Amino acid sequence: MISILLLFISAVNMSATEKGVASWYGAENKVSASGKRLNHKVPALAHKTLPLGGGTLAAGGGGVAAGTCVLGGIVAAPALLCASFVMHSQAERVETQTERYIAKIDENEAQQWRLCEETNVFVCRANELEESTLRLETELKSVLAAADPDSEEEAYRVAKIAAALGQLLEQSVLPKSQASA
C-alpha cells in the first residue's frame, strides 16, 4: 500500500520529495491531515503540505478515479510487458517464416524464368528446323519434277538435297546442352 502511495505522490508532484508514514483513517466523518472530512465511500489521499489532490472528483481531488488509474497502471504494466514479450516472440517467428516463404518464391520465380527462356529457345529451334525442312522439301520436289533420270549431274543434285533433308530430320529440337541432360 505504501509503494502505491509513493508512486501516486511521485506521479502527482514530480518536484516534491518527502518521507513519512502513511496512515489509514477508517472511521466515518473524521478529519484528514488536509482538513477534509473522510467518507468511507470515497477514499482520499492527503498530506499537510503536499498538494496531492485527495478527495472526491467533485471537490477537485483525485479520489477513487486517481487511485484506480494508478492501481490500473501498476497491474496493467507487467501484464502488458509480458504480453509484449510473447507477441514479439510470435512476430519474430512469423517474420522468419515469411522470409523463408519469400526466399522460396524468389527461387521458384527464377526457375520459372529459366524454364521460359528454355522454352523460347526450344520454340525458336523448332521454327528454324521446320522452316529449313519445308525449304529443302520444296527444293527437292522442284528438282525431282524437272530432273532428267538419265543425267548423272541431276541425280547427284537430287541425292545431295535428299541427304541434307535426311540430316536435318535427324537434328534434335533441343540444343546440345539440353539434349544430353
Features:
181 residues, mainly alpha, 2 domains, disordered N terminus
Unreliable runs, pLDDT <50, ≥5 residues? Answer: 1-14, 54-60
What fraction of the residues are assigned to beta strands by DSSP? under 5%
Class inferred from helices and paired strands: mainly alpha
How many β-strands, per DSSP? Answer: 0
What Rg is obtained from the alpha carbons, in whole angstroms?
48 Å
The largest sheet, given as strand count, sense and whether it forms a barrel, is: none
How many domains would you count in the coordinates?
2
**Helical stretch tally:** 4
Compute the separation of the termini in Å. 80 Å
Q: What general outline do the C-alpha atoms trace? A: rod-shaped
Helix content: 55-70%
Textual characterization of the structure:
The structure is a single chain. The chain has 181 residues and is mainly α. It folds into two domains: 2-86, no CATH class; 106-179. Helices cover 65% and strands 0% of the residues. The chain is built from four helices and no strands. The protein has helices at 2-12, 63-146, 152-170, 176-179. The chain is rod-shaped. Mean pLDDT is 75; it is low at 1-14 and 54-60.
